[in-house]
Design goal:
Layout: H1 2-9, E1 26-32, E2 35-41, H2 45-51, E3 62-66, E4 83-86, E5 91-94, E6 97-99, H3 115-124, H4 134-142, E7 149-151
Antiparallel strand pairs: 1-2, 1-3, 4-5, 6-7
Length: 152
């Protein structure tokens, strides 16, 4: 949690990119007693963490995502990661940093409404968990245009 707070504040940004702070929403995912649990919020993780009681999160696996909204219209709780997709074959949770403004084309959509959700759909839209392999992922990711950024 403290590492995510430091990233959100820009304290760990040693790169030359202009985006240093991630203040546009946040989410946590952890596993307790074999069940996936999530918690999301909009706004600053820095502020949220200062009021959050994290003592109830007792887990050996915790993932935290702090968000910088590339597009201002994609701010708010519905855009906070982790995103969830239940495709009927499995339940998927997804966090990513980056910008993929053309992934919607691979889904046959006329325009993008939220690139992260479209990216999740593109990767696992009709896939069972056991179908995910290095070969599968390499082919899917290799099919994307190199115009964009995405850290996964």
């Amino acid at each position: 949690m403290s590492a995510a707070r430091a990233m959100a504040a820009g304290e760990t940004a040693t790169h030359d990119g202009e985006i240093k702070q991630h203040l546009d929403g946040w989410g946590c995912l952890w596993i307790t007693h074999g069940k996936v649990r999530t918690l999301h919020g909009e706004g600053s993780f820095i502020e949220a963490l200062s009021t959050m009681d994290v003592s109830s999160i007792n887990t050996r696996f915790l993932a935290v995502h702090v968000r910088h909204a590339t597009l201002r219209q994609n701010s708010g709780i519905k855009y906070a990661h982790p995103l969830k997709l239940d495709n009927g074959l499995g339940c998927w949770y997804f966090m990513h940093n980056g910008y993929l403004p053309t992934v919607y084309l691979h889904l046959g959509l006329k325009k993008s409404s939220f690139d992260s959700a479209e990216y999740l759909e593109y990767i696992v839209g009709a896939v069972q968990p056991l179908d995910i392999s290095e070969v599968y992922l390499t082919a899917k990711l290799g099919g994307l245009q190199s115009c964009c950024s995405s850290g996964n």
